[in-house]
Amino acid sequence: MPNTKYLGDATQADWVSSGSPLEYNNSVLLTMAEGTVGTLLTSTHFVWYGKVGARFATSAGAGVVTAFILLGNSKDEIDFEFVGTQLTSAQTNFYSQGVPVYTNGGNTTGLSDVHANFHDYEIDWQPDSITWSIDGNTVRTLNREDTWNATANRYYYPQTPCQVQLSLWPGGLPSNGEGTIEWAGGLVQWDSPYMTNGYYYAQFDSVSVQCYDPPAGANVQGTKSYIFTDAAMTNNTVEVTNDNTVLKSFLGTGTNMSAGYPSGSASSSGSSKTSEPATIPGLSGVGTGTNGGRGDNTTSSSGNDSGSSGSGDNSASATGAASTGFVQGDGGDSSNGAGQIGGNSETVLKGSLLAVVIAVVGLCIL
Prior knowledge:
Elements (H helix, E strand, L loop, with lengths): L14 E4 L2 E4 L2 E7 L5 E9 L2 E8 L6 E9 L4 E7 L6 E6 L10 E3 L10 E8 L2 E6 L2 E7 L4 E2 L4 E2 L6 E9 L7 H6 L15 E13 L7 E2 L4 E4 L9 E4 L36 E3 L2 E2 L75 E2 L5
Parallel strand pairs: 17-19
Antiparallel strand pairs: 1-4, 2-3, 3-16, 4-15, 5-10, 5-16, 6-7, 6-15, 7-8, 8-9, 10-11, 11-12, 13-14, 18-19, 18-22, 20-21
């Protein structure tokens, strides 16, 4: 469903899109034509620990970035990313509340051409460890215990509900920071032989999701949505609820979900436009930060109980809003990346078509 139509009812769609996804041979093409910022697909449900896999062939070319990530409203993030000039490599990374730690990244080399060939990529996210795998082989393991930060007095470990995001975006735009352009392999070439029918593309064949049970001691008061009970936005501030997540209009927020348009006003599809040009599908901002790191990774969405079985699908999701995209970093404006909760939460969602934050839904998308 396009992000200009999604109001938080995950029974209506498993994915929300921005940009131009295309169906092709029982798969989905994420496309990026000149003058666009690519394509983003975001799951309408959130995962609070689980095993998420995707089978795809990346795009290719200077400045072209393909990504398969988990991203939360707290800016927790777990990544697979692919730079279009490094076709035998896959980059892995993680963030806690969007704080850039430049030693967190990893690089797996020696793969068969990731553009010409499909590979199976998997993230196994557990409360005490994250495992990245390619074609069934573990390429990296992160233990939570190894992420302790004494200065912040907390673990820099992704620990709050996340959405699945698949994207193709131009890291090599002239308007991006020098560090981002360099990381992405240079400026995008809009006459590249890697383009077909006027666009770059990444081809996604399938996505699988197995949700794990909520962590031990989780505050479970419902089954379909969650809220943060404190601005710390850590796992012990997540409360699983039965709160509603469907907005009346794009004027709604997590604290005023029934807000509607005055009679005679423009429709929701024309609302909340920003004058700042977007450089990542759906939102304003740039690629991986002006110094090659990442900052303002934000998103908003909602879902519903999917009725899945056999995998303990009692995980929760996160806001009651439409999912419109993400920012992979514009330098960030918060040292801790925590943002706000309650009525001020919309500051976390800058550039989004909807500003909703508090209650979210969904247990698993499959």
